[in-house]
Design brief:
single chain; mainly alpha; about 0% strand
Length: about 200
């Protein structure tokens, strides 16, 4: 997601954040709810119910949006809350892709390919920002949201058009763009650090 789209998204999503504040939901509580929903999504996907699994993935994404929106709306974001959110996002990715793997509706290799790709792209950003002290390394071909959209397309297509390997294709794309994103982030980090050293 580019910077202009993200700014518009963050501004508009604060409407939902204000609603959460009014009913007493804090960002960390919403993060915990999102994690619980992702576990449920993994279990449902394990049972090869891809429609309900897709619905639960959408709910996971929605709660992920809500925790950030609530933090911004109430100006109550904390460093720990940000760390907790990032860690829970990685757990959510694991549970969802593990559920797909255990469903045996796709070769395990494609699920692992996508899972490691998503994790390494996130880790590359985290390392650049923490070790390299780079303010924002959220660059790359595709963001987390787009990857989940691709997984959803694969799940729904697999449910209605079994035998065409749509899910495997979508997981292969998710994995490939994730590795490309990781490389782009490494290149960007190298550029920023080189410029910093030359000053």
């Amino acid at each position: 997601m580019n910077s202009n789209l993200r700014a518009a998204y963050e501004l508009r999503s604060q409407v939902f954040g204000r609603v959460c504040l009014k009913i007493g939901l804090t960002p960390n509580v919403l993060t915990a709810i999102g994690l619980a929903v992702s576990v449920a999504a993994g279990v449902v996907l394990w049972k090869a119910n891809f429609i309900w699994g897709s619905i639960l993935i959408l709910l996971t994404a929605f709660t992920d949006m809500l925790d950030g929106a609530t933090a911004r709306a109430g100006k109550i974001g904390t460093v720990y809350g940000g760390i907790l959110d990032h860690v829970c996002d990685r757990y959510a990715e694991f549970f969802i892709l593990a559920g797909i793997l255990l469903s045996q509706r796709v070769h395990a290799g494609w699920a692992l390919f996508a899972l490691f790709g998503m994790i390494i792209a996130s880790y590359t950003r985290a390392a650049a920002e923490s070790i390299g002290n780079i303010k924002n390394c959220e660059v790359g071909a595709v963001g987390r949201l787009e990857k989940f959209v691709m997984i959803l397309i694969g799940l729904i297509s697999e449910e209605f058009f079994p035998g065409y390997h749509f899910l495997a294709i979508c997981l292969a794309i998710v994995g490939a763009v994730s590795y490309i994103t990781s490389i782009q982030r490494l290149v960007y980090t190298k550029k920023i650090l080189s410029e910093r050293d030359s000053n």
